[in-house]
Structures are given as C-alpha cells and as structure tokens.
Task: inverse folding
C-alpha cells in the first residue's frame, strides 16, 4: 500500500504514526493482546485531549476499556481515579480486575461492607460512597482527576437513580467524567445535559455488537429462526412461526367436551393438543439437552422468579442431567470447598450447601438475589471458567455482572413488576439477551425464546428489532440532600444547582413540544367556535347550560355513590371478630367469618408507598376456606352480622387444617341463612331544584328550537373537550417548569419548621441529619433527637434500625410481624408514632411520597430476625423463624449495619450529656454483633 503513496504522503503517514506512538493511548493499547474497536479508540482519544466522554454501547461490546484507559491516564499523570459501579458485586469484580492489572498496592476498594487500601490512586467504589464523600468534603477527593461511572443508565432507577445525578452535578469542575452506558435511544439528549453541567463532553454511540446475535424460538422438538434469511435492513418474521401461531389460535377446545359421560380433564386436553399440533413448551431439562446437542452451551435461562430458578435446578437433577465429566466435577468440588472453607459445617447444612454443590458438580446452578453472596460469586466464577454450563437466573443477573454466555433463554416475555404481570419492554429484552455471545470465544450469540400458548412472533420481533431504551431521570430532592446542599452552597445557590439536574433538563425540553400543541389547539378552537354558530341565538350560552345540567346530574350521581360508600364503611366499622357476614360482591362474594375488622379510614402503608382506602378492610375466612383481606369495593352496600361465632384461640390463618375446620363450622352455623336484599332509594336528581331550573332555561332558550341544534351541539362538545385538553396542557407546562426547585422549597420549608434549617444556617439538628443517608433519613434523625433509642441494648437497637431499611417483597395483610418484647417493642411503637407525625407534616407542606419524596412507614418485618441474630442466635433458628432466604437475610443485615454506622457517626451530635455517645457505642456494638457468620464473609479476594 505504501508503495502507491507519493513521498509526501509517506512522510505525512510516518509523522502521523510517530505522533500516535507518542500518546498515552499507544502505551495503553500494548497492554492488550487484541485490537481496539473504532468506538473505543474514538473515546480514548477524546479523553486524552481533556474531554469528558459518554459511551453508549451494547452489553459485552467492551466499553469498560474506556474506563480502564481513564485509570491508565490518572496513573500516568499522577492523579487519582475513582471507578464507580451501581452494585457491590460489580465493585468487587472490578477491584479484582484492576488489582491484577496494576498491582494491589495501586488499587483500593470502598463499599458499604469493605474498605481496602482507600488511599490508593485508583479506588473502586459504589456510587453512594462517592456521593457521601462529596457531601462530607472528604480529604480523599484531593488530587482526583478522573471519575468513571460504569452503568450510568442506572440513573433511571426510581429508588437509587438520584445518586448518579448528585455525583455528576457536585463533582469538582477539574474532574474529567467518563460515563459508560448501555445502548440508550436518547444518548444525545443525555450528552447535551452532560455538556451543560460538566463542560465539553464527547458522545460516542455504538450500535455494533462485536458478536452477532441470532434470535430463535424453541417449540416442541424444533428450534426455529425468528427472522427468515434475506437481504435488506427490514427483517421478515419466519412464516413458519406465523403459521403455527395462527393454527394454534384457530384450534379451540371446549371445556365441556365429554368422554364416556365424564368431563375431559385439563391434562387430557393438553395431551390431545400435543398429539394434534406437535407444538408445546419444552420442559427445562429438555431445553438444556437441546442446547447441549446443538453446541449452544453455556447458557443463561432467565426465569422471573427465585423459587422457579431453584425448581429448575432440581428438575434438571431429577432428570439425570450431567454436563460435566469427572475431571470437571473434581475441579468444581476443589474450587467450591476452597471458597466456602470459612463457613461452619452447621451453617452449610442450613444453607442447602450439599444440594447446591451437587448441581454445580453436574454443571447446573441457580443465580438470584435470595442466594448467599458467597454462593452467587462461586456460581459466577465457575460459569466464567466453563465449569457451570447452565444457569437459571432472575433478571438481576443482567445488571452488569460480567457473566457472558453463548446462549440466553427466556422462558416467558412477561414478568411481575411488583404490582402486576406486565410484558417486558424492548429495553429489558435487549439487556437480557445482551449476555449472549462471548467476545473472543464465540463466533455468534443466540437468544432463544420458548414457545408459550398465545405466543405472538410479531410481538417478539418487535422486542428484538426495537432499540427503544430511553434514559429517564428519577431525580428527586431528599431531606439529607437539602441540608447538605444548604450547608455547602446556601439556599439560593442550592436551588440553582438543582435546576441543572437531568430531571429538570428533560422537563424543560418536554415543555417545548407541549407549547406547540397548545398553539395548534387554540387554532382548532377558533374553527370549532365558528362551526357551532347558530342564527337563532348565542349557541355558546346554550351549550354552557347543557354542560351545567350534565355536570349537575353527574355530581348528584357521585354524591349518591359516596353516600352509599359511607354507609357501607360505617356498617363495616361496627363489625367485630366472630361476626358472620354475607359479602355482597367481588371475587369472594358469599358467606364469610370476620377474623379482624381491619383498619380505620385513611392512609396505610403498602408495598413501595401508600395505599388510600376509604374504610375498614376486614380480614375474613370464606366458606371456601380462604383467608383474605377484603376492600371497600367488595361492599357496595351496607353489611350487617347475620350470626356470631367463637373463633378458637388455636386458630392459625396459615394452617390449611385450621381453615378447613373453621370454614366447616361456619357453613354449619350459617349456611342456611338467606341475606336480605338491599333496596336502593329514590334518585336525588328527581327532586333537585337546580336541575329543574336548568331544564326550564334550556327549553326557553332560542337555540332550543333550531333544526340543526344537535349538529351545533356536536361542534360545541368538541369545542369544550378541546378547551379542557388545552387547559390541562397549560397546567402541565406550569407544573413542569421549576418542578425540582419547587419541591426543594417545600422540603426546606418543612426543615425550617422543624428547626433543621434557619435561613442559610444548618442547625445542630441539621448537621446530624446531614450524616444520615437513606429513605428514612428524617425519621432516623427525629428518633435520635427524641432519645427513642436511648437505653436500648445493641440487639434492641439493631431491631429498631432494621425498620428504617427493611421493605417486605410483598405486603402480608394476614399476619402482624413478630416483634421482640420489652424496650425494643416500645421503641418500635414510638418510631411508628413519630412517622405518623412526620406524615401529617409532609401532607401539610404538600410533600408527597407518590412523587418519590417523603418518608414511607417503617416496616417492622425484619425486627425479630435482626434482634435474634444480634443476640447471638444460630443461623438455622433465625432463618426458620424469619421465613427468609439466606441471601435476603444477609443483604438486609448489611443494610442495617450500614445505617448503624451512620447512626454511630451522627448520634454524638445529639444535644444532651452523654446520651448520644451511649447510642453511638451501642450502634457500634450492634454492628459487631450483626457482622458474624454468613454476614461477615468477605467477598473480596
């Protein structure tokens, strides 16, 4: 090639090569035995010129190379580099990688659990740790030159996302920011914001997957390609799949088909379906065997349920599946025994170690948040080494852990989102299937979706072909954030800083489109107004009378419904345990026995927030042996006791035998009683004077006699509908402008009322709050101020602090949590009372938890487990009583330890002679008491 160049061109090329070799990037490239991709080179070159970078690229494409180059630059320039990750497991993994490359003396680790070589020039940490450093003005920040934010798309997370924005906004201007993100559809918008708050930022977007991904559907014994082969960008769905879906939809099965006079059972119909169509959902062992025969292992099968992941492993073991030979089995046992040597034998039995080990030896494992962290890390290590070939995982595995596979299997395209079963989004599908295809190992990756009844190939093609994964800010000011900002910058500057958040940036941009829509609507209103003109009179006035009449009728109907609901609620409040009632409607209509009358009207704490209810929610036992918490919707009419029954003291709502016996007694006692039918009274509209007046005015209006009256009325209806929509848009514009700052103002007003702030001064109470991070920061501060935790033992304090962090995975209405007795129980009760006071204050200052701001009710569900563990009880006993997986138990204990550490730091600032010091000492003792056994095992190698 160079022979074809002129001498001048050869000289220029030589000069260019010499210049490239003199760069830090040239030295960096020599550290790798593979060439860098164009997007990696572009990002590294931008970094070397002093620019910040945002790199958005698919999972597995190697974007962390850019982060490692920032580490390289920092070491070369004698500066510090902080490498932040969203989760501790990722921090541990990255620490191990960087320590191997640069030496353990140059790399440190800071997470909630571990502190290793914190003064090193390169420190890996969770994002929260860096946020806390920035607010505390830590000396560790001195000399900081680069910050790498791995998985920066986490700022969309509605619970933790605000931390990323806090860090980006508050980092010193001298720090160069490296943001690494999954492929997002609004990377340019995010880049524009970074450019605004951080200065010159280069946006590098790569859609290219280094290992191509092929999409398949596994139906019965055959694996189909999702797309048919062909040229062009627009891929066509495989016609075989479309035909199969159409065939299955056309086959209807009547559940009342009879064979020999008996109803056909579901199993018979399913067998018949298989025989006729040869299309079915293959079992889990079948799927793994099929992938193995096709050479598509190792594979990760995503199942959106922890229990189902464990069940999948057991199914494979029962099916006799073996994916490892004897040599691999021996190597697995050696690694597992080495990694779990610190766990006592009695704990191993409790943790299901031997069943877990059997699966690993066969090359099969589960991976989910309910597992012990040590177990999860062993699974990850064995999978990367190729000693585990089939992993059944929940979607948490997709969140950044370096565990690529040759294939990814999705059992279903629906998952539980905490509130309902919902279709997975294109972004979630991309994140999950992004694990398929190991760079440098696989030529291609494979995503396999299992055929399910009602499967739509077009829907799957839409998921696979869409790259819609927008980054949406979840930023909201908090109490802790407010006092820290005011202390550092004063109220006015703090307000301005919050206006620079990505949340406000997005809100302001969205207003532009809404304003255009308002302008278009106003033009439409002029047209509608002309079309409803009537030659007999003012039709706008006539239309107004019609609307007033309609609104009055609607209001009266609503009042009637409200009165009926109030009457029903009043009747429910009179119920007592032992009352036999007839539930008038709903899924559990029929005879029922009241076990607990329920809560009074108002607000109650539900999963992830508040549930508004307008009356008691009685807990009942139905005649069909079900124990259910009913809602006001089940009682459209008043209900009264038909009979009374004694509820045995030994009755246990969780015992099937107890429910069966009591339901039988209920049917015997009251099964023959026929409830009275409720009769509805005369409608209020029939006697309403306002309605009579409006009807008279309508009939007397000149336009009432117009032949085209109804035609004019239709235009008038469109006019009013469009005007209402326009007014809503105008309110949205008003609501989106300065939203973050307005919320901040309300928080500051409340904190001023409570003597945490006085103008730009942060009071002693405020300084204590500044050290407390977490969802219930203000509640924790108030408990310290009121001395709620004084005089508690370390175990009792651990129980109380657990209520600040724990949140049940699902609300359990049936049974109240078990609580430790004595001082701990009294302190927990006082915490709930303080929360009630704060909740009322937040309502007064219009601080709404539904907007992600404010204090949720403390959850006492982990108090007993925390107390028992801190008291020295054994793991077997604690887990059995807590009815909780080991992984969840360890995670909650570590979160309690984290908050106890904050309390130990904040408590001495409480006014009063020595009281705060006592709480601080006991908090430190509680940390030591909790950090033992499975909770203490370090995950840093």
Result:
């Amino acid at each position: 090639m160079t022979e074809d160049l002129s001498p001048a061109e050869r000289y220029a090329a030589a000069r260019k090569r010499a210049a490239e070799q003199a760069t830090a990037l040239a030295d960096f490239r020599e550290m790798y035995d593979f060439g860098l991709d164009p997007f990696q080179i572009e990002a590294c070159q931008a970094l070397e010129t002093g620019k910040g970078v945002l790199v958005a690229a698919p999972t597995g494409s190697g974007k962390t190379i850019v982060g490692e180059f920032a580490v390289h630059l920092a070491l070369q320039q004698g500066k510090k580099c902080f490498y932040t990750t969203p989760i501790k497991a990722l921090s541990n993994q990255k620490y191990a990688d960087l320590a191997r490359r640069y030496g353990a003396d140059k790399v440190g680790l800071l997470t909630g659990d571990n502190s290793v070589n914190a003064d090193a020039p390169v420190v890996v940490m969770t994002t929260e740790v860096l946020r806390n450093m920035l607010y505390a003005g830590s000396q560790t920040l001195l000399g900081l030159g680069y910050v790498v934010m791995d998985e920066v798309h986490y700022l969309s997370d509605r619970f933790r996302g605000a931390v990323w924005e806090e860090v980006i906004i508050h980092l010193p201007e001298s720090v160069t920011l490296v943001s690494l993100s999954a492929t997002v559809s609004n990377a340019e918008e995010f880049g524009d914001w970074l450019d605004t708050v951080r200065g010159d930022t280069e946006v590098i977007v790569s859609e290219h997957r280094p290992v191509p991904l092929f999409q398949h559907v596994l139906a019965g014994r055959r694996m189909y390609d999702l797309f048919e082969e062909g040229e062009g960008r627009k891929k066509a769905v495989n016609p075989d799949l479309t035909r199969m879906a159409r065939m299955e939809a056309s086959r209807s099965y009547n559940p009342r088909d009879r064979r020999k006079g008996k109803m056909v059972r579901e199993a018979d119909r399913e067998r018949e379906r298989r025989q006729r169509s040869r299309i079915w959902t293959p079992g889990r062992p079948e799927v793994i065997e099929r992938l193995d025969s096709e050479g598509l292992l190792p594979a990760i099968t995503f199942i959106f349920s922890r229990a189902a992941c464990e069940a999948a492993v057991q199914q494979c073991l029962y099916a006799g599946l073996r994916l490892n030979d004897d040599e691999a089995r021996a190597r697995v046992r050696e690694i597992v025994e080495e990694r779990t040597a610190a766990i006592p034998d009695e704990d191993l039995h409790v943790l299901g170690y031997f069943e877990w080990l059997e699966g690993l030896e066969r090359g099969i494992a589960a991976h989910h948040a309910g597992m012990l962290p040590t177990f999860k890390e062993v699974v990850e290590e064995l999978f990367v080494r190729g000693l585990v070939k089939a992993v059944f995982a929940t979607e948490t595995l997709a969140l950044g852990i370096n565990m690529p596979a040759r294939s990814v299997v999705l059992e279903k395209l629906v998952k539980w989102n905490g509130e309902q079963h919902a279709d997975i989004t294109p972004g979630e599908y991309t994140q999950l299937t992004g694990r398929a295809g190991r760079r440098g190992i696989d030529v291609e990756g494979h995503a396999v979706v299992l055929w399910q009844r009602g499967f739509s190939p077009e829907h799957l093609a839409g998921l696979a072909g869409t790259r819609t994964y927008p980054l949406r800010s979840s930023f909201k000011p908090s109490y802790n954030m407010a006092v820290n900002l005011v202390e550092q910058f004063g109220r006015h500057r703090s307000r301005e800083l919050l206006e620079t958040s990505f949340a406000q940036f997005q809100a302001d941009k969205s207003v532009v489109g809404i304003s255009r829509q308002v302008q278009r609507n106003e033009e439409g209103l002029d047209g509608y107004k002309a079309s409803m003109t009537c030659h007999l009179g003012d039709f706008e006035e006539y239309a107004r009378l019609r609307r007033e009449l309609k609104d009055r009728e609607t209001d009266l109907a609503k009042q009637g419904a409200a009165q009926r609901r109030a009457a029903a609620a009043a009747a429910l409040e009179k119920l007592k345990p032992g009352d036999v009632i007839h539930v008038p409607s709903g899924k559990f209509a029929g005879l029922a026995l009241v076990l607990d009358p329920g809560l009074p009207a108002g607000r109650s704490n539900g999963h992830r927030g508040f549930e508004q209810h307008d009356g008691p929610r009685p807990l009942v036992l139905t005649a069909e042996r079900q124990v259910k918490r009913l809602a006001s919707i089940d009682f459209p009419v008043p209900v009264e006791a038909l009979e009374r029954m004694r509820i045995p003291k030994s009755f246990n709502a969780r015992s099937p035998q107890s429910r069966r016996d009591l339901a039988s007694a209920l049917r015997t006692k009251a099964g023959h009683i026929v409830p009275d039918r409720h009769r509805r009274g005369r409608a209020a509209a029939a006697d309403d004077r306002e309605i009579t007046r409006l009807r008279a005015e309508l009939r007397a209006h000149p336009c009432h006699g117009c032949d085209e009256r109804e035609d004019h009325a239709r235009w008038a209806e469109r006019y009013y509908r469009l005007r209402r929509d326009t007014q809503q848009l105008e309110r949205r514009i008003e609501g989106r402008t300065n939203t973050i700052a307005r919320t901040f103002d309300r928080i500051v007003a409340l904190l001023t009322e409570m003597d945490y702030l006085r103008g730009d001064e942060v009071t002693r109470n405020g300084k204590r709050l500044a050290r407390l991070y977490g969802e219930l920061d203000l509640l924790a501060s108030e408990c310290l101020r009121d001395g709620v935790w004084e005089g508690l033992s370390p175990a009792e304090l651990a129980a109380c602090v657990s209520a600040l962090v724990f949140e049940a995975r699902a609300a359990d209405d049936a049974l109240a949590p078990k609580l430790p007795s004595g001082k701990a129980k009294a302190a927990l009760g006082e915490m709930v009372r303080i929360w009630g006071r704060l909740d009322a204050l937040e309502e007064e200052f219009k601080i709404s938890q539904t907007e992600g701001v404010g204090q949720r009710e403390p959850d006492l569900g982990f108090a007993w487990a925390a107390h028992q563990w801190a008291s020295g009880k054994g793991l077997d006993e604690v887990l059995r009583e807590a009815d909780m997986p080991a992984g969840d138990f360890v995670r909650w204990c570590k979160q309690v330890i984290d908050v106890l550490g904050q309390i130990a730091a904040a408590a001495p600032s409480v006014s009063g002679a020595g009281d705060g010091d006592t709480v601080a000492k006991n908090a430190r003792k509680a940390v030591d008491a909790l950090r033992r056994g499975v909770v203490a095992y370090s995950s840093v190698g």
Remarks:
- The chain has 33 helices and 28 strands.
